[in-house]
Design the sequence.
């Protein structure tokens, strides 16, 4: 009798402890909501704002794919703090270790959480030009974002990939009965873009090769990116996780069409101005006005896109 | 003006202000009083700030892209044999190397209307100081909000930039002899400013920049600009001149590795 009641109390006690833990897990879930894309694929949707201390830099889509042996993280967040939330979110879904942290490209909202995964001792993977891109921008990013992110920046480290992917030479990773294909691209959004394709579900993580809802930002080549968009929109895919905006099975093709329309408009209107020996100022004042209601944060980034495109198209 | 020691001194002076607040806001101590003595010595106190009615700088109040800030300098002063602009000194107070460009001008150029693109590193005053043939100095200035133009990485596509290095274009609308025409000279060049730190090699990427662009018509120099590290990648000079006869417009570019590039265009 005595022994049975002890085990019953032990059982009750462990149940109590477990339920307390579940409660705290649910709380953290509410602060950092995770959405399921499809079987074993999860992401946190970034908010359409500029990075700040309040939003802890969580402005991009970051997430993970669970295999039978381990987990791949795709983009680690816009701050060390966000990286810890993402790591926590993984723990809530599985006990498996993180074996890969894949960075789609160099921008802070996609790489600043890398250090939060160090304890997993993962392989960090990116486009072959990512190490140089990080090295070139590190100083500027550190100075700027320490200020922008405030307390959320603490713990942020610049961790370069130890394995890289070259254009024309995709690599395959196996998470345990789950193969991922990583593909590098010629200069598009940046000069170091990478996508992740899950064979099991035909899900493509595009990184910032696709922006939905939020205005795309050009930090690479307008013509290169247009060419890549045309390529990607034709792929046979069931799900797409864009770099910014809502993951879906049915909206992504229109997403690419919208982006193609935006950059083609900029391209064609600038072309006319450049051919007539017009100025950057004229271009920023007149180009792409028809797009102004189609994108969040348009006033923050559109004229910069026009300026970058202008100087590129002078050499087209 | 681009003496290495001088620019290092200036850089350390500027850095003293940059590292303290570490923000895009103007340092609280204005640098101009120090800079004008550094660049103009005894003549510093004689700089007249009265040129507003005949000299203008056009620059965005807030730059869209700090690495590509369009700047236009215009003068409504019709040059005569007695009175003409010899030089225009262009200074960006809060840049690592504030002395940004020296435009040597020929009176044959006529009314000055010159545009280029600069990197702006911090919120700052930009200044154009016209030096007349009689040595007098006249200044106009504007405040520009931009940051990161010098320390942000060199280019969006380093490989493409290097592949194109030295290519030049002279572009202009169809000219008519005797009429003013706007022309643009651009040279493809990364203009590495020597301030971009490569964490991989733990060294600064060596400076490799355009040092001079000289534009001449029928072998008579119109504009010769000495450029510093503030000039944007793919330096561009846009200007207006009046061809009084048919001839060849020629542009010669020199860079810090003693490379030379040239391009010309016929005007008929």
Sequence:
């Amino acid at each position: 009798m005595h022994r049975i009641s002890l085990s019953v109390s032990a059982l009750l006690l462990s149940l109590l402890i477990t339920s307390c833990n579940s409660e705290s897990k649910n709380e953290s879930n509410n602060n950092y909501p995770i959405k399921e894309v499809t079987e074993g694929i999860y992401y946190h949707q970034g908010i359409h704002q500029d990075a700040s201390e309040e939003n802890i830099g969580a402005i991009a889509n970051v997430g993970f794919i669970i295999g039978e042996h381990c987990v791949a993280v795709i983009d680690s967040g816009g701050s060390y703090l966000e990286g810890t939330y993402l790591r926590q979110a993984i723990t809530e879904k599985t006990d498996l270790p993180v074996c890969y942290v894949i960075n789609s490209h160099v921008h802070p909202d996609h790489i600043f959480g890398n250090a939060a995964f160090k304890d997993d001792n993962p392989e960090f993977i990116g486009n072959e030009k990512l190490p140089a891109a990080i090295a070139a921008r590190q100083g500027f990013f550190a100075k700027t974002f320490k200020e922008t992110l405030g307390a959320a920046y603490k713990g942020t480290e610049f961790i370069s990939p130890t394995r890289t992917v070259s254009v024309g030479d995709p690599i395959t990773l196996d998470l345990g009965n789950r193969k991922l294909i990583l593909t590098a691209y010629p200069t598009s959004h940046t000069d170091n873009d990478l996508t992740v394709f899950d064979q099991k579900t035909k899900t493509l993580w595009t990184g910032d090769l696709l922006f939905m809802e939020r205005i795309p930002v050009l930090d690479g080549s307008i013509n290169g990116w247009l060419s890549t968009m045309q390529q990607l929109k034709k792929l046979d895919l069931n799900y797409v996780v864009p770099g910014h905006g809502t993951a879906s099975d049915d909206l992504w093709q229109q997403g690419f069409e919208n982006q193609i329309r935006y950059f083609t408009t900029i391209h064609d209107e600038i072309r006319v101005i450049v051919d007539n020996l017009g100025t950057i100022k004229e271009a920023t004042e007149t180009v792409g006005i028809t797009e102004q209601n189609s994108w969040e944060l348009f006033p923050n980034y559109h004229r910069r896109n026009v300026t970058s495109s202008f100087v590129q198209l002078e050499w087209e | 003006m681009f003496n290495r020691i001088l620019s290092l001194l200036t850089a350390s002076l500027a850095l003293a202000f940059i590292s303290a607040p570490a923000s895009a806001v103007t340092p609280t101590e204005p640098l101009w009083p120090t800079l004008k003595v550094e660049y103009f010595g005894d003549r510093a106190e004689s700089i007249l700030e009265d040129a507003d009615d005949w000299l203008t700088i056009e620059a965005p109040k807030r730059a869209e892209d700090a690495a590509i800030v369009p700047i236009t300098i215009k003068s409504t002063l019709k040059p005569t044999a007695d009175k003409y602009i010899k030089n225009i000194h262009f200074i960006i107070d809060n840049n690592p190397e504030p002395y940004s460009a020296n435009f040597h001008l020929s009176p044959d150029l006529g009314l000055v209307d010159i545009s280029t693109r600069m990197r702006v590193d911090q919120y700052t005053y930009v200044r154009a100081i016209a030096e007349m043939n009689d040595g007098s100095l006249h200044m106009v200035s504007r405040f520009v909000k931009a940051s990161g133009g010098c320390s942000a990485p060199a280019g969006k596509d380093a490989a493409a930039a290097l592949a194109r290095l030295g290519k030049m274009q002279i572009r202009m609308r169809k000219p008519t002899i005797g009429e003013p025409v706007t022309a643009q000279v651009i040279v493809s060049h990364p203009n590495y400013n020597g301030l971009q730190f490569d964490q991989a090699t733990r060294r600064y990427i060596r400076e490799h920049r355009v040092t001079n662009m000289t534009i001449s018509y029928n072998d008579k120099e119109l504009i010769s600009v000495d450029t510093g590290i503030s000039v944007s990648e793919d330096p561009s000079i846009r200007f207006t001149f009046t061809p009084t006869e048919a001839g060849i417009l020629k542009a010669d570019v020199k860079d810090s590795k003693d490379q030379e590039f040239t391009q010309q265009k016929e005007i008929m």
Q: What stands out?
A: Helices of chain B lie at 4-19, 32-40, 158-163.
